[in-house]
Amino acid sequence: MEKYSENSAPERVIRLARADIGLDGWLVVDRLRWGCSFGGVRLMPYPSPDDALADARRLARAMTYKCALAGVEGGGAKTVLRVLPDMDRRRVFEKLGVEIENLRGAYSCARDIGTTLDDM
To answer: Is the Cβ–Cβ distance between 92 and 79 less than 8 Å?
Structure first.
């Protein structure tokens, strides 16, 4: 059995950045070895990219624990996006969709703080 601890690094950390559309954030997949990873997409005015990354890592790990406690065969993940003044919301979420599709079913996401059904 795989050894897993509080200090285990996430399996994937993807930087999401495109200045031309106001995209700045992170997609963190904590665990894939147990199946698809689950987590939400959060949009908040984080002070810096480092703050957003720290929250994405923390929340992805929390989702791993939630899946385990619920008996869900899967791991945790989280996408955290920074609210920026020049953000083109439609294009940001289109680009995020491409990134999620590139994971080929490894990440199943839903909305979270700051996101809407239209975003998804």
So the answer is: no
- Vertex 115: Cα angle to 111 and 117 (nearest 5): 65
Question: What pLDDT does residue 32 have?
Answer: 82
Closest CA to 80 of 102, 63, 67: 63
Dist. CA 75–CA 59, nearest whole Å: 12
Core vs surface per residue 97-108: b (16+ CB within 10 A) or e? eebbeebeebbe
What is this structure's pTM? 0.91
> Quick count: other Cβ atoms within 10 Å of Cβ 75?
28
Beta strand 75-82 with 107-111 is unpaired
Active site members: 78
What is the rounded distance in angstroms from the CA atom of residue 73 to the CA atom of residue 70?
9
89 near 23, Cβ under 8 Å? no
What pLDDT digit, counting tens, does each position of 40-70 carry? 999 999 999 999 999 999 999 999 999 999 9
